[in-house]
Structures are given as structure tokens and as C-alpha cells.
Amino acid sequence: MIELREITEEDFHDVLSLELSEDQQKAKLVAPNVRSLAEAWLYRANEDVFPYAVYNNEELVGFILIDVDEEERAYMIWRMMIDKNHQGKCYGKKLVEKVIEIARQREDMDVLHCNYVVGNDAMKKIVESFGFVSNGFDDEHNEQLMKLDVK
Ligand SMILES: CC(C)(COP(=O)(O)OP(=O)(O)OC[C@H]1O[C@@H](n2cnc3c(N)ncnc32)[C@H](O)[C@@H]1OP(=O)(O)O)[C@@H](O)C(=O)NCCC(=O)NCCS
């Protein structure tokens, strides 16, 4: 079972050791986890950016950074990654499914956003399988913007 857990002193180093394949790193599909944790710290006063360790049962398999915009009633998967040794086991898909479930439980959220770099076929396949639809294109970051109604 996929779970989002707060990162603690016990698993902090393991979260930083999670890795992508060389090709995925070169393609810059997602920022390094250390950067995401630094950004979560930077925006901590706003209380709207939440980093989590992703566990499958008791095993650490990935990382996710969630952004919550109460004013816009929008939930966003800002960053997510599954460690290279755990990819291809459906954890990425189950992780997105879990976030959809969490967003749907929040009555103050209408929409879930999830964007991906063009050419990220795994992420494209995952979000489309849950019914996300295009929300435009970000030229600056070469990202396809996707959204899902969670009302
Ligand atoms: C994207 C990512 C999270 C997917 O995690 P994963 O656990 O390997 O994915 P899953 O095993 O759940 O696979 C989901 C689907 O994508 C497909 N898939 C996986 N890699 C693929 C690839 N390179 N090209 C096309 N399809 C791919 C799988 O076959 C599966 O399809 P299915 O449900 O029809 O069988 C992972 O590859 C990753 O961390 N990538 C680098 C970081 C990244 O891209 N983050 C997303 C930023 S928005």
C-alpha cells in the first residue's frame, strides 16, 4: 500500500539518496529532491508546500512535493519521483491515485494540477489514465499542464 509520510530525522538521508536513472537525470524530468526540500523550507511560512516520503508498506520508494493553494481551491503535484530501483512496479500510478483520493477528500479543493516535461511518456500515460485533461502549455519550462476536476 502506497503511503505519504512526513520526512523525519530517521529517513531524511534515505530520501536524499533516492535516485533517477542517468537518462532521467539528463532529461531534467524533475528537480533533485534536495532542491525540493530546500524550496519547502523556503516557503514554509506560507504553509502551502508539503514534502513527503513515499512508502510502499515499510519500504521507502519515492518522494513527492505537494502545493496547496486554498485561494484557488487547487491541489498540485509539484514534484514526484520513484527511485530507479523501484520504477515499473506501478508505484508511480498508485501514488497519483493516492493524491487524487486525498484531494477529493478535501471539500475546499476543486482541481488537482499535475504538469510534466514534454517527452515524459511515463507521466503522460499515468495522468491521462486518471482522466487529467490539458490545461495549456508552459513554453518557458517546456511543460504540458494537466488538470483533473476533484469536486
Ligand atoms: C514518472 C514516474 C514517477 C513513474 O513511476 P513508475 O513507478 O515507474 O510508473 P508505473 O510503474 O506506475 O507506470 C505507470 C505507467 O507508465 C508506463 N511507463 C513507465 N515508464 C514508461 C516510459 N518510459 N515510457 C512510456 N510508458 C512508461 C508503464 O508501463 C505504466 O503503464 P501501464 O499502467 O499501462 O502499465 C517515474 O518514472 C519517475 O520517477 N520518473 C522520473 C521523474 C519524473 O518524471 N517525475 C514526474 C515529474 S511530474
UniProtKB/TrEMBL annotation:
<dbReference type="GO" id="GO:0016747">
    <property type="term" value="F:acyltransferase activity, transferring groups other than amino-acyl groups"/>
</dbReference>
<dbReference type="InterPro" id="IPR000182">
    <property type="entry name" value="GNAT_dom"/>
</dbReference>
<dbReference type="InterPro" id="IPR016181">
    <property type="entry name" value="Acyl_CoA_acyltransferase"/>
</dbReference>
<protein>
    <submittedName>
        <fullName>Diamine N-acetyltransferase</fullName>
    </submittedName>
</protein>
<feature type="domain" description="N-acetyltransferase">
    <location>
        <begin position="2"/>
        <end position="151"/>
    </location>
</feature>
<dbReference type="Pfam" id="PF00583">
    <property type="entry name" value="Acetyltransf_1"/>
</dbReference>
<keyword id="KW-0808">Transferase</keyword>
